[in-house]
Amino acid sequence: MSATHSPHHGHHGHFQLHLPRVRVHWPAVPHTRRPHLLGELVLGGALFAAYLFVDSFGSASRTAAARSHGEHVLQLEQWLHVDVEHGLNNWLAARPGLMTTANYEYATTYLISAALLLVITYVWTPRLYRQARNSFILLNLLAFACFAVLPVMPPRMLPGFIDTVATGGTVGSWGSPIVADANQLAAMPSLHMAWALWVSVMLARMAHRQWLQVVSAAHVGVTLYVVLATANHYVLDVLGAAVVVGVAVAVTEWWDRGRPGDRLPTSDAFFLDVEAPGNAQNVGGLALLGGAPSYAQIRDNLAEHLDVLPHFADRLAGAQTHRWVPAGPIDWSHHLVEVTLPEGTDLDSFVGELTGAALPRDRPLWRVWLIRGLGDRVAFCIVMHHCIADGIGAVAKLLHILAPPYQLPVPDRPGPTLLRRGGGVIQGLAQLATDGKPAAVLPAGGPRRGFATIDVPLAAVQQVARSHRMRVTELLLAATGIALAEVDPVLASACDDRLRVSVPVMLRAPGVGSDDGGNLTGAVIVDAPARATSIEDVRDEVCRLSAALRTPTRALASRWVMSSALRAVPHGGRRWFARTVYGRKYFQAIVSNMPGPDQAFTLSGCPLLRVHPILPPAPGIPLTIGALSWNGSLGITVVTDADVLDARAFADALQERVLQTRRADDDGAEMALR
């Protein structure tokens, strides 16, 4: 199946959608949110600019003051009997080969070790990376402040010392021609020692391998010897380095204690804010397995893939500003539950009851049920909170635990430029402002959910859509309105014969997958005719009303509001906004059509026979429909407000409508042949 839906190839999407790459990742690399690389590079550039700014203070009087300060430091060391720089410097200068080696060590290893530490933490331990980055920035700013207020000339520039850089001809070392413009009056504190100590402190927090700690300690010892023997620093400079590192790390840890973990993006926290009793915001999937895997097999499968399932090992912290923090060991008795389908209960109703319950927020926000009692088959049901993933993100997570490894193709084309995206947001905001509200606000129902699934051949649905010159999403919208009018004409009449539908649109840059988690969706409002008629009778109207789906501006605008604009709003305002716009005041149904993989899979050795999506309703709306293509089938899940609309009756009417349309088309073709 192509990752880009196109009407020219009979695909069933209504917009161009870049599906997530589902890769086989090196297990040691966790998949979680990381700071944007460009932003981190900008921070690094700003830090270097601050260093250059301090360096620009040079003047004759400043040089004289630095010389005087250096002499005073040396006198204080002599009084303390710690002035070992002379002896070390003379011994090293008498050994040219070792001297040159020391100069290169001074010029390179502090840079290499710090850069490696930042890269390693960015890739392998993103949470530690934030602490490492923040403490690194702070220790450097503290050092720059010292350089600005108290310039100190290094010993090698004072009488009686040998300048090993000048005599050793070292390329790239401090004072050599290649860095001649570097600040040479920055002895106190020693940044070389500070960086080496900082690397050692950070490694102690991320690594438990003893050999790595030994290597780090050796690097600190070598750096200590080199900075003194090359006469680039005083002993007291080293103490100053220890002070700035200690202060920077302590302040950063104090700051992090008050703000633990990774902050939820506002687009994810949105679904925490709209959740209310009786309206759990859980997404996921229901798969029927052609076999009966054991509890241990499924548990081991999930445990093996936890590192590529973002936030499956985290819990929420913070009452208003939600953050992800480590949850500790997984309580498998809670997260993986083995149940037997009660006698006389159908699977759909049972799954609807299980998945409609709110997930406890003091644990990782996901659960899996193995449902037995289906003969030689087992149902695998997984849900996660909507703040972890959107619909297609939940599909990507399911693919992680299936075999064989699968990667959906992504079109090789550049995404929109920043200017075009900005223009689209502005245009979309104007369009959203003119969309208005539905003709009627439906009365609120109750907390009971109806849940029903149907499974239809994907090729048949695509053929029907082509016969009507429609996309599959347009066909689903038309069939939804007609089925509603047939099953509950009173409800259709209350909608003024026009059902206002929110259609989620996945907004993913080409080549960017959803396996980092989170919500990357916008929404487009479409009015679907709700009349008891034929698909052909409403075809033109549906295609005209759904034209907004073919341009991304509304989706871009709604995404911008959720992910960017709401950042500037206090939590109370965000909560009010979410509960105001996401519900029956603005739309009456959700229809989500999601493309999936086009091949067979197994879960712990058992084939997946059919798969259905699980989507939560918005507060107060009577109807939610999720459609997912999977290995030649279109699995459709219907979730309703059970006090307003019967889920099974509606699902049957929807299925009958689609199949009848196909049969009517076939009959017409047979009549034409006759």
From TrEMBL:
Keyword set for this entry? Membrane, Transmembrane, Transmembrane helix
- What start-end ranges are recorded for coiled-coil regions in this protein? none
| Residue stretches making up the O-acyltransferase WSD1 C-terminal domain | 518-656
Classify the main location: membrane
- Please give a single GO biological process term from the UniProt record: glycerolipid biosynthetic process
Q: Which organism does this record belong to?
A: Flexivirga oryzae
Subcellular location(s) per record: Membrane
Per its record, how is this protein called by name?
Diacylglycerol O-acyltransferase
What residue stretches are annotated with the O-acyltransferase WSD1-like N-terminal domain?
266-401
Membrane-protein topology: Multi-pass membrane protein
TM spans (from-to): 37-54, 106-124, 136-153, 185-204, 211-228
Pfam family of the protein (one): PAP2_3
Asked if the keyword Transmembrane belongs to this entry, the reply reads yes
What the entry lists under SUPFAM superfamilies is as follows: CoA-dependent acyltransferases (SSF52777)
Q: In what residue span(s) does the Inositolphosphotransferase Aur1/Ipt1 domain sit?
A: 72-250
**Assigned GO CC terms:** membrane
Q: Name one GO molecular function term.
A: diacylglycerol O-acyltransferase activity
